[in-house]
Amino acid sequence: MAPPAVKKKQNYASIHEAVKTGDVEQLASMVKSGTNINEVDLVHKFTPLHCAAHSGSLECLHWLLWHGANITDTTIRGWTAAHLAAIRGQDACMQALVINGANLEAQDDKGRTPSHLAAAHGQSYTLQTILRNGVDANVSDKNDWKPIHYAAFHGRLGCLQLLVRWGASIDDVDDNGNLPAHLAAMEGHLHCFKFLVSKMASVAHALKARNDHGETPKDLAQRFYKDNIVEYIDSVEQERDHPFGQEDLAFPAHVAAFKGDLVTLKRLVESGIININERDDKGSTVMHKAAGQGHINCLQWMIEMGADCHITNEAGETPKDVARRFAQLAAVELLTQVTGDNSDEELDINDVRFFDRHGVEGSTDSKEDLTLDKVNKRDARIRAYQKTEELKQLLEIACSNYKQLGGITEEERVKKKEEREADKMVRELEAQLEYERVRREKLESQLDDCRAEIARLKECLGKVPVSPLPTREIEAPSDLGKEKKKVKKPLSSPGGVFVRRC
């Protein structure tokens, strides 16, 4: 493998600055020189791990976790690294923290967990990572606000829909008796309010619900001058509108991109209702939907708005991969100009260009603080690849030592279990086969007995003497005046059986 380009070392004032810029080599050097790996800055009380989670410096975060950074340290507000990853939507960092044992139910000084903060900041994909790891969707903070209250209050429609799918209750109230619908109406978030009304038991129940101060959603909307909510409620009450209208509430920005509806897409993104890099339940962003249908105008606008073209869905496809799969050549060409990748040749891992082509950045992570150029990203990928190879070798050595000391690996345990189950199945089949063999022998014996009986009966029948039967005369009708003919006919018994005449 060709060595990476030598770059000039930078001098950082603190370990926190090295982490924010993603310089893992300087981080390692500073810790080796005696800097405390859990050093706290003076302003925000951030440790290096907090900085890594906040800025999305994934490589530094992994390095810190591997070398013993304290994952439970908190900031002034009581935030752990998981809280900061939730606020910034650093889902890759969140997954790394979960793998290393981060407590996703840790509460800050206001009782908020990472799920509350992810919902408040519209980080739906990071919120999904949290929920998938068993966190209760209805956890409360000190004001009895659930994540769904935060999503409704801040107008985070994607998080609202996600929470409902994961079992969040839309009928829970806070310590003032406010439903999520009250909060959405108070802040004028019409899309969220419509969605909540559509999910409640009845429209009347949603519109007439009162908080502890006796206020309905309409009362709150009027008090805070949210005319869009008031007009909508009036139209529903007068039966001019219905919350189950034609508007598709399941990821509306994705639907708009799929249909090529740029006007709706702009309105949803620019109003802050939808994050432009927000993913649906399959991991696809709005750009994936537009690329698959070849909507060039939508793609161009999203690129201008700074949408990330490198995010991969659950199938590992970027928007350009989706466009190529659906033969949207114009979209492929446009996205190629943005990504700068126009090569279809297969490269070997010994070629540095391999890491230019195969960099996986499938995350909605915010990169406002962390700014790495292409060379730095390539170098980071090379280091990560080298680390995986090193860990594979160490794993092979450890497994070999374990086996030599008499240990049984999990793979061997599974293999032995499968062998035992296979042996049991073979024994059952052999027993069944033996039963069928005995049964067949018994039937063959019965068949031989039947054949012998048939032969004996045939022999007896051959010994019975048979005499000729007598005949009697009958008159046949005359034919054209001829005399009647005498016809002899054998006598028979009434039952049709021939009888012997004495």
Please give a structural write-up.
The chain is an all-alpha fold. The protein has a domain at 251-341: Ankyrin repeat-containing domain (Serine Threonine Protein Phosphatase 5, Tetratricopeptide repeat, Alpha Horseshoe). It is built from 24 helices and two strands. The protein has a two-stranded antiparallel ribbon. The model is unreliable at 240-248, 357-363, 480-489 and 491-502 (pLDDT under 50).
Entry summary:
By secondary structure, this protein is an all-alpha fold.
Number of helices: 24
Percent in helix: 40-55%
Q: In the CATH scheme, what's the topology name of the domain at 251-341?
A: Serine Threonine Protein Phosphatase 5, Tetratricopeptide repeat
Radius of gyration: 41 Å
Structural class determined from secondary elements: mainly alpha
Task: Map the helices and strands.
Blueprint: H1 15-20, H2 24-32, H3 48-55, H4 58-66, H5 81-88, H6 91-99, H7 114-120, H8 124-132, H9 147-153, H10 157-165, H11 180-187, H12 190-199, H13 203-208, H14 217-223, H15 227-237, H16 252-259, H17 262-270, H18 286-293, H19 296-304, H20 319-325, H21 329-339, H22 353-357, H23 374-404, H24 410-463, E1 471-475, E2 486-490
Antiparallel strand pairs: 1-2
Helix pairs in contact: 3-4, 3-5, 4-6, 5-6, 5-7, 6-8, 7-8, 7-9, 8-10, 9-10, 9-11, 11-12, 11-14, 16-17, 16-18, 18-20, 19-21, 20-21
Supply the key terms.
mainly alpha; Ank_Repeat/CDKN_Inhibitor; 502 residues; Ankyrin_rpt-contain_sf; disordered C terminus; coiled coil; single chain; ANK repeat; 24 helices; repeat; Serine Threonine Protein Phosphatase 5, Tetratricopeptide repeat; two-stranded antiparallel ribbon; extended
